[in-house]
Amino acid sequence: MLGYLLIPLFLYFVYRFIIINLIIYFRYKIKFGDKVAFLFYPLLGGLGISRKSYRKYGDSLHILKQIQRNKPDMKAVVIFNGFNIQITLIDTGLLKVFLQNTKNYYKAEGPFGARYVFGLGLVKSEGKIWARQRSLLSNTFHFNALKDRVPVIKEITKEYLQKLDSYKDSAVPIIEELQNITSEVIIQTFFGENLRDKKVNDLQPSVEISKIILEGFKYKANSFPYFLKLMVFGQEKAFRVLNTQFEKDFIKRVENFNQFIEEIIEIRLNQLQNTYETSQVDENFLNLYLLEYIKQQKALKENSKQFADYELISKREIAHQFSTFFFAGMDTTANQTGICLWLLAKYPEIQKRVSDEINQAVNNFDQLKHEDLSKLDYFNAFFKESLRMYPTAPHIIPRVSACDHFVEDFFVPKGAIINGVTIQHNEQKYPSLCKEIDTFNPDRFLNQNVIQDHFSFIPFSAGPRNCIGQHLALIEAKIIIIYMLKNYVIIPNDELENVEFNHLFVYTSIQRNLIKLKKIKSE
Ligand code: HEM
């Protein structure tokens, strides 16, 4: 009896996971020949390829970069894991069409528990809810609107970087040090206050949310039971069924965190309700969100306006928006800026040029103004070059294809995971961007015509879902590096032989003690 049941099940699996994928494979092969690269890694797919690449070459992106370098007309890399296909778009024409179309995709699940942590926030929201959130938040992330945030970013930077003196001649784990700053910036720009005297799940809120995000990533990457559930039930259901003890505890911990943030929101809401009509309101993200919420609640009470479901703001959404910014903006900015400091140590002549430009534009760190940040052309070129060679986000956030469809002439089946590269690596196709591709040379970005094709260099992605926090990231990086170069000469850590790059959550160096410091003066 069992045999009769198992045979159709087996045949279904062969059809669903092997035959269908083989048909797709031959379809691409016939149409595109070697303009599409095929890779196979059982079970792990793309994750397996990047692990292999790291083990073999000390760089988890090496295999993918090599594919791009070898073929200027490469369209995409298609990776099979035996169950599913993952498509990484390379061709900029395809990338452009893909990034401008939000309708055929939804965001992939991400780390374990992502939907509980930040499922209602901007990174994960879709359709009209996403459009409503993006339009509410866009203005506050504009370069000029961030002007008011400069004093607080300066203050946080100074407070944490002053502590670096204690390292004296020892190597500095600079990325960890910068994570303190970038977490605090997100907290203070979001809440308008620091949460340092508060505890949730026995930890400081910034520590707990970092741990939750990191453990969610690690669990997804390393847990075999969860992996099996993903294969059998798919990403929509896997996190809900047959939960292990770890999963149950994790979800409970996240719920505590959400409730903790909602309590802060509730207190602020009460304060604002009493004061917003009579006094000036600080323009932090929480106040901005709550003013909109108050307007909405008032209209609902007076019955003067009806709202569609997608327009309604909830406190849980606001809590998830905080975790979203933390998830998207903390590690990315700390790692990119840390890598910049390592590059300054590695190339003293570039350090001198950046430092000279800063000294011309800014007399003294304490007097640094928002306008001064726009005077740093060489710094801008240097930062872009760091993103070209060591982008913390070398791929856009993966989407799932909601239906069978074409991106131009490229077929994307329903259920495929699809993403794209943010940086091109072919010298023949992009001669000015990729000339002497392995040489770190910020000067290439001083040439006005370096980007011949907008989609060849999109470290913050492009299209409607590009990075909303890119100006904030640049402001933070500038303020941190200005402080560092006003106070220290940055020197290499001579005990480090190799610096290897791997995907943790972001693409970054595995070695952490990247630099040493020589104090030049106290401000
Ligand atoms: C060096 C630092 C950063 C890099 C390299 C970076 C890069 C990116 C990339 C590549 C995307 C993906 C877009 C896509 O999938 O098409 C993205 C999205 C996003 N980033 Fe950033 N990011 C950085 C800093 C920040 C900061 C500081 C914040 C906010 C505090 C932030 C908030 C977001 C959000 C909310 C999204 C999703 C936008 C949406 O879907 O509408 N990022 N970022």
Automatic annotation (TrEMBL):
Its cofactor is heme. Heme binds at C467. It comes from the Eukaryota. One of its GO terms (molecular function) is monooxygenase activity. The keyword Oxidoreductase applies. Keywords: Heme, Iron, Membrane, Metal-binding, Monooxygenase, Oxidoreductase, Transmembrane, Transmembrane helix. Signal peptide: none annotated. Belongs to the cytochrome P450 family. This is Cytochrome P450 monooxygenase CYP5008A2.
